[in-house]
Recover the amino acids of this structure.
């Protein structure tokens, strides 16, 4: 039975590939990245064994293994999206007993590039264990990493299933999304903090931490064979128990949430607020926007960046990254270095618009039928988003200036930041028209169609690099001119940003005019 | 922009010539010619998958045809989109609206998008919300509306700028009888005021009751069309439909186990 689920997933995957050339290209790129990660992981994990370093091997197994498990929980939520091609809700009406369904979905989840890459990478530990402790250690380690893969998959499935379906009404779901986005976005900074803490810590401290990790479900599966090699064979059954117990618990949890997932989400109750007394236009368009087409579009965009969960998640992740990353790097960075960091963050803000049309899905038809000119459409979208991002960038710059004690340099640095934001937008706008992709109709804001993950990552990367390059001259001039720049940096930067944006609109506007129906077809 | 030439009343409200659309290798619409006379109430009939939605999407500029032309009140949809689009109101299939807005906000959005002055948008939105019983001060987001309410707000958005042609995809699907009667009344009033309605449906009773003209589609082509009386003859529309489309309507010896 489980085989059928795997076959179904493979068939869905093949169907996706048949859809078009770029899908195949993305699949190839995704596979290459997977192979790269697998090889890198394998080498890292096998090296200590080859050099006969038992202590280092144990350390790397526990720490690396824990990171892999944690990565399986958070990476899908944060970056790659969850593969919902086998959504449990689609099996709701089939007379399948829950254990059968569970086994099937689990088996299907084991198929894919990430599980394969993970498994291949952790096989390096088997190599290591064999080198250190002979065949017996190797075989035990093989069982360990296999258990580890099961743990990773069970954990990620249970987490996403619980998250996507535990909250039934739209309102509470929206709220939870925001909470999760905050937590998830905070992880990066915490990781950085941990890394800088590790730099200062001594090796003995690290060894103690990994020693503990090796006894938690996070590290236990990966240290089995190394225990044998070190002559602690008695630890193996205990650790197997720990891991198997964790997997069983996770599967039980998953199975409980699965039922709710199959029932689907219920709608929330009707209105509970007092009726508005303002006119319809007054309700839509705030006072500081003109009551025109542009005003209506921009007003809808500002509303949507807050009311739509996917967008709000994007916005919050940006805010957290924008505030915490520079703060963490503050210790060892000059004004110039921080400026470069802020440029990166401004570009990151612009990248949020890379799939701006994808957020709208088929609702975009309204704008196509109304025949909104491309340049008005794009300019209003930039305006609606900038309402949030520009003040945020200003606050971040000022905070950095205050904390880093270079307040006098704030205006010039902010000029560079605006320039980077404008340049980022100039690159992102044509991309958002040409390279839009559809987002699935799922309750989870993190869900992606299989294959779209690499697209998202590639688009973002291209825009980030592009924006950094585009503002490089400005940064160089600022660095060379130093003192004068403090006075002229702000106006020049703003002019540069506006110029870049105008260029981007000039490029993307006519493009959108020509491609409106095609764009609609791509995203709906 | 060129000055549009003087158009006589002879121009049909909607004129399709040789429209073709292929998806991959499947031909969804295989060369459609259709004239919708101005002032008519036009029903486009067909079984599921006949190509109704594809045809209407191409007619209003949402989907680019592989070949053929679509003209609205004499303006070519694909050569001069602004002129054509400003004259139509559309209720797309499945009513995917910008549903994170409230009803009044959505109406204001559509009105301003069409370039209407704010005060006119306010006045008309208020009337439409009242008539359709959606509530002018209602702060419920459209995403939380019921299916019938979503259809009604979608229709209000299509009507707001007083277009001369309304194109509605399945306007009566998933609507309760009371709302359906209200929508019917609004549409009849709109037609008697000189407007033209084109809508797709596969509910014969509604079509027979409302339409002055019908066309029956199947397999991507028009199988029959013209004034309702001419198409129907002295039979019921349902009989004509089944005969034209040619599906089976009764079981034979199979399914004996039922």
């Amino acid at each position: 039975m489980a085989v059928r689920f795997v076959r179904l997933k493979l068939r869905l995957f093949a169907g996706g590939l048949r859809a078009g050339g770029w899908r195949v290209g993305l699949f190839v790129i995704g596979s290459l990245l997977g192979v790269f990660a697998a090889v890198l992981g394998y080498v890292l994990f096998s090296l200590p064994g080859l050099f006969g370093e038992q202590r280092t091997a144990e350390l790397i197994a526990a720490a690396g293994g824990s990171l892999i498990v944690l990565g399986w929980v958070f990476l899908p939520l944060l970056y790659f999206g969850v593969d919902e091609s086998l959504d449990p809700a689609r099996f709701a009406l089939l007379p399948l007993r829950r254990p059968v369904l569970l086994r099937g979905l689990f088996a299907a989840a084991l198929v894919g590039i990430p599980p394969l890459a993970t498994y291949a990478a952790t096989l390096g530990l088997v190599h290591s264990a064999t080198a250190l402790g002979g065949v017996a250690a190797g075989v035990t380690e093989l069982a360990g990493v296999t258990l580890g893969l099961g743990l990773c998959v069970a954990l990620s499935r249970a987490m996403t299933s619980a998250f996507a379906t535990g909250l039934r009404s739209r309102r509470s779901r929206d709220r939870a999304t925001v909470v999760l986005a905050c937590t998830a976005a905070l992880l990066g900074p915490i990781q950085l903090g941990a890394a800088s803490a590790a730099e200062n810590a001594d090796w003995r401290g690290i060894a103690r931490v990994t020693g503990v990790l090796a006894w938690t479900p996070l590290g236990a599966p990966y240290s089995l064979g190394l225990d044998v090699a070190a002559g602690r064979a008695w630890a193996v059954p205990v650790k197997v128990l720990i891991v198997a117990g964790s997997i069983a618990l996770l599967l039980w949890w998953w199975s409980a949430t699965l039922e709710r997932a199959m029932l689907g989400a219920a709608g929330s109750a009707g209105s509970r607020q007092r009726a508005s007394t303002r006119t319809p236009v007054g309700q839509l368009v705030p006072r500081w926007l003109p009551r025109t087409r542009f005003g209506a579009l921009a007003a809808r965009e500002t509303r949507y960046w807050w009311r739509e969960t996917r967008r709000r998640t994007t916005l919050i992740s940006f805010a957290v990254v924008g505030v915490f990353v520079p703060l963490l790097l503050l210790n060892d960075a000059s004004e110039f270095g921080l400026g470069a960091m802020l440029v990166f963050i401004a570009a990151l803000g612009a990248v949020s618009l890379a799939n701006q049309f994808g957020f709208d899905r088929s609702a975009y038809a309204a704008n196509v039928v109304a025949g909104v000119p491309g340049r008005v459409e794009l300019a209003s979208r930039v305006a609606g988003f900038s309402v949030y991002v520009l003040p945020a960038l200003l606050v971040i710059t000022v905070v950095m200036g205050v904390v880093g004690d270079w307040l006098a340099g704030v205006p010039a640095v902010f000029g560079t930041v605006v320039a980077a934001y404008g340049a980022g937008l100039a690159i992102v706008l044509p991309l958002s028209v040409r390279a839009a992709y559809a987002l699935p109709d799922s309750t989870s804001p993190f869900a992606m169609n299989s294959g779209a993950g690499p697209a998202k990552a590639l688009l973002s990367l291209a825009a980030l690099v592009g924006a950094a390059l585009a503002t490089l001259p400005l940064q160089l001039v600022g660095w060379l001119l130093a003192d004068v720049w403090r006075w002229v940096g702000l106006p020049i930067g703003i002019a540069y940003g506006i110029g870049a944006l105008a260029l981007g609109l000039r490029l993307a506007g006519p493009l959108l005019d020509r491609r409106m129906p095609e764009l609609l077809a791509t995203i709906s | 922009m060129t000055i549009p030439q003087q158009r006589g009343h002879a121009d049909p409200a909607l004129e399709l010539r040789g429209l073709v659309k292929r998806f991959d290798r499947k031909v969804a619409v295989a060369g459609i010619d259709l004239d919708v006379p101005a002032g008519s109430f036009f029903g486009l009939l067909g079984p599921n998958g006949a190509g109704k939605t594809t045809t209407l999407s191409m007619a209003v500029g949402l989907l680019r045809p592989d070949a053929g032309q679509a003209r609205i009140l004499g303006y070519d949809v694909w050569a001069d989109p602004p002129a054509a689009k400003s004259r139509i109101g559309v209720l797309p299939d499945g009513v995917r609206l910008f549903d994170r807005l409230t009803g009044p906000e959505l109406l204001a959005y559509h009105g301003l998008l069409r370039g209407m002055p704010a005060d006119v948008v306010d006045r008309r939105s208020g009337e439409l919300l009242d008539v359709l019983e959606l509530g002018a001060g209602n702060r419920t987001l459209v995403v939380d509306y019921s299916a019938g309410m979503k259809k009604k707000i979608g229709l209000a958005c299509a009507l707001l700028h007083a277009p001369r042609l309304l194109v509605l995809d399945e306007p009566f699907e998933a609507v309760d009888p009371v709302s359906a009667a209200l929508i019917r009344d609004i549409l009849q009033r709109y037609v008697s005021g000189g407007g033209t309605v084109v809508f797709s449906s596969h509910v014969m009773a509604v079509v027979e009751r409302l339409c002055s003209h019908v066309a029956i589609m199947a397999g991507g082509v028009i199988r029959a069309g013209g004034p309702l009386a001419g198409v129907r003859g002295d039979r019921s529309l349902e009989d004509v439909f089944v005969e034209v489309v040619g599906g089976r309507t009764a079981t034979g010896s199979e399914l004996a186990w039922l």
User: Anything to note?
Assistant: The first helix of chain B runs from residue 52 to 60. Chain B touches chain A through 47 residues (CB under 8 Å). Residues 1-8 of chain B have pLDDT under 50 and may be disordered. The CA atoms of residues 103 and 138 of chain B lie 7 Å apart.
